[in-house]
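Section 5.1 Outputs to date
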Amino acid sequence: MKLRGAHVLLTGASKGIGRCLVDDLAAAGATVALVARSAELIEPLADRVGGSAHPTDLADSAQVAGLIERVEQAGGPVDVLINNAGIENHALIDQLDEAVIEQTTAINFTTPQRLCRQVLPGMIERGRGHIVNVSSSAGVFPVPGLSTYCATKAGLSQFTACLRADLAGTGVGTTLVRLGPVDTAMWDRLMDANTTMRRVSERLETLKISVSVPPEKVSGDIVRAIGSGKRHVMHPKRIVPVYMLGEANRRSTEVLLTGVQPRA
């Protein structure tokens, strides 16, 4: 998917990986529609890159309804949708407030599906488009204290695999991003709040199995994946074999159903 001249909707655009993506997408020639809850954070960013700001609480179903239509009315058809927004929680399930469970599930899992549902009719009609869903290694590894977060990321990964199969032959591509530790405020909060997770992370770093990745690196890889049609972005590279073990059943099913060997 060529990014020069493309209209990209990016959720979670105010911080971390999303903020890096704003600059990288604009540098690639795309017009970026920034979506995040805080207007104060995304409006100056949008002005700087010549994009548009769409303050939205992605946990609020009423605000999510019609979001794609509003963005397209302001800036034309959406060519690329990047579901980057995500939130973490860190407690045993019996200690989580139900409102937190609902918010986490909405932002990490339900809203990406709803935005795909809204954007796909236009993409399919035009015969082109790309969808990026940002998942996590937590969708593969069961982490104590992160049951809801892990479940939503596992669901997003499986949803993307099914979406890829549904879209075969339409001209619309997908990229699934699976991430371990990334140097962002979200990861810092998780380390501060979850003692078990911090011990696991320190152990993996000692064994040189998992290392944190700069958000700039992730952003650059996502932009290149869109441009080349690459279906996966995975970090850290040292645990890619584990990711691929989990992907094996999806790939074998795809081959059985279509007879076509999937690309990387």
